[in-house]
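Many introductory courses stop at the sequence. We go one step further.
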Amino acid sequence: MDIAAIAARNGITMHRAQNSPLPELGTVTGDWTDKPLAIIGTGPSLKGFDFSRFDIAGVRVLAVKEAIWDLPFAEEVFCLHRPWLLDREAELGALDKRKVFAVEPEVGRCPVIPNSLYLLRTRHAGYSDKPTEIQSGGNSGFGATNYAYLKRGTSGRRWRWALFGFDYTDQLGEHYCADRYTWYRPGQNARYWRSWGDNFNDCKAQLSRAGIDVMNASPISTVSAFPKCSIDEGIRWLTAACG
């Protein structure tokens, strides 16, 4: 049945929602393996933490979404969640930091923010190995690790990451900065947390082949793919790899 044709015969105009145009998409380049990497999310295990302690000489910092406002020394910020881009468009436009966004065509506007790298967001198991694409894993924390994976370069150096605030649980609340999540409805992602944590299991072989060692410094985390430790231990683990 051709619904559009029937509608036209009856004088009805149908309006089909169109995907929004995307900014120009780019490619991940560069090699970050010269320094250990702290990837910092917004999980509740970081509530009350002194973020200046992440400002460590010789450690590179990648912020995930809202964590950027507590990490003025971060090298870049990553996000794949369109509502956050819209909510923080003005602040991100004024932010003198490199922004990395993974986007896919969606109904509604996609902000074009200066000093930003836009990549295509995809959905499949494991990490994307294409420097033009990010596998979402359902959330910006996972996407940030796929972005970091694409920054491994060709040096062959072993590389050390520590994840902070990658909790995917509400045992201590939902975000350390819950008051700033103005677009977020409390509890809206609770049904996904376990599966989001499990998504990291599909990446272990890729990380191993790339010579990337990962420590999850989020002790209450549902991410079981990597050894867990305290925040303090995670900081010491990164610091030990400096220089």
